[in-house]
Amino acid sequence: MQWSLVIPLKPLTRAKSRLADTAGDGLRPALALAFAQDTVAAALACPAVADVAVVTDDELASRELGALGARIVPDTPANGLNAALAHGAAAVREIRPAAPVAALNADLPALRARELSRVLSAAAEFGRSFLADAAGSGTTLLATAPGRELRPAFGIDSRFRHRASGATELALAGVDSVRQDVDRGADLRAALSLGVGRHTAAVSTRLPIPGP
Length: 212
Fold this sequence. Notes:
By secondary structure, this protein is α/β, with parallel strands linked by helices. It has helices at residues 28-44, 59-68, 81-95, 113-123, 158-164, 176-179, 185-194, 198-204, and strands spanning 3-8, 49-55, 71-73, 101-104, 128-132, 139-144, 168-169. α1 (28-44) links the parallel β1 and β2 (49-55).
């Protein structure tokens, strides 16, 4: 089974505002782009993934992520994260109507293709499922079988909202790279300890990463 992935990305100038404890305004857009580049590159390297669609209106991100092989879907709804994901899922199903679809965060700079493959293999056993983030209250991946709606509920406490919506929580060990999204400096330090992709590694050399 090969999946279509939908990755949402807000305009880079507004991305990663909670990283203010680590990155200044001049570096946060570059960091957000690097996270997305490493996420997309790892996703496209995963044998369980047929295609990746990035929902964004950012011109630079569209150009850079498109160069990696992602399909760019304009954020036509322009009504927040969940509307963008629903729109992206509909767009990929116009091309691959029988494909399973998964929403994946754009801020997974340590993502490993083999770990993503394990998560998607587990998700294939359920009609709709999700993976909680490393912090324990959010979601990094929401998956749905062919013919099922994605029904994304990302945002604050999305782990509990996805569970309440009937999605099955995937209980997997050894997939830290798929769980480790980055919102704050502590998250970035955790991702760096796992080993990030080349784009994030390059930008991170310009950051004063604070200690614990």
